[in-house]
Amino acid sequence: MRIDAHQHFWRRARGDYRWLTPDAPALAPLLRDFEPADLQPLLQRHGITQTVLVQAADSVAETEFMLSLADEQAFIGGVVGWVDLAQPASVDVLQRLARHARFKGVRPMLQDLDDVQWIATAPHPAVVQALLGLGLRFDALVKPPHLPGLLHFLAQWPELPVVVDHAAKPPLAQPGNEWALQAWRDGMKRLAQHPGLCCKLSGLVTEMAPQDCTSPERIAASLWPVWHTLLEAFGPSRLMWGSDWPVLTLAAGYDTWVAASDLLLAQLSPTEREQVLHGTARRFYGLETR
Predict the structure, then answer these.
(1) DSSP H helical ranges for 113-193
(2) Helices marked H in 134-168 — which ranges?
(3) One-character DSSP codes across 51-81
(4) Which residues face 7 on adjacent strands?
């Protein structure tokens, strides 16, 4: 059994995916619609019973679009949407969205903000209190420069359930990157001291050098130091597997990532693998048992 704790859908004609532009040649393979019918064969092939559908646009309209897909597709176990955390009016928006049983939380697109300290200073207390009061979660889309700000946010709101997306995107493709990787390791270990914080094993292949993505074995070998850091810091009960599909396809196929991550998880006991593959995600997001 497996839950994909991080995937996306989009319809470009909706017009709010501002990062998906022809001006970025590297994103060319993503400049089309990605719908449930594209993902379902992959889920069936790997016994994936549920997914968590995560926002890809900073608009409430996209969140409503995702919730409409969840109404149509039983495999979408939860939706992580977007609201403007800095605006008090977002309290009413959260209350409305939370009436949908599969609305599980929010994700600001922190990695795209120029101010790496935004999360430490900008969110309005009433909005964060609403997240807590409604039992919602917070997905942290961050890179290493954002970790000090995220630590400050966690200190302010220690009761808020938070998961770090894509393991904070360590600098895997930078030549001579040992200093930068060590800074990432130190930051992740400090984050892991917050007992309610979880982390996603996802979105890492697209951070790697292309020559390291040619096979499951090469991916697993390249990610082994990162995986070891995550396992040591968080343990299986706070790690969850995800694909980051379709962004994943810029570097590797869904089948390849499943095989590579299975190689990483091979050292774990059956119970520990179950935590990473479905237990942590189900518990963190409050997903139905299937």
Answers:
(1) 118-121, 125-133, 147-156, 178-191
(2) 147-156
(3) EEEE--SSSHHHHHHHHHHHHH-TTEEEEEE
(4) 53, 245
Identify the three-state secondary structure at position 285. helix
Residue type, 220: A
**Per this entry, what is the length of the chain?**
290
266 Cβ contact list (under 8 Å, min separation 6): none
* Structure confidence by residue, pLDDT tens digits, 162-208: 999 999 999 998 767 788 899 999 999 999 999 999 999 999 999 99
pLDDT tens by residue, 56-94: 999 999 999 999 999 999 999 999 999 999 999 999 999
Structure tokens at 133: 């009061």
pTM score: 0.97
CATH number of 2-285: 3.20.20.140
Give strand pairing partners of 197.
Answer: 162
Task: Compute φ and ψ for 154, nearest 5 degrees.
Answer: -65, -35
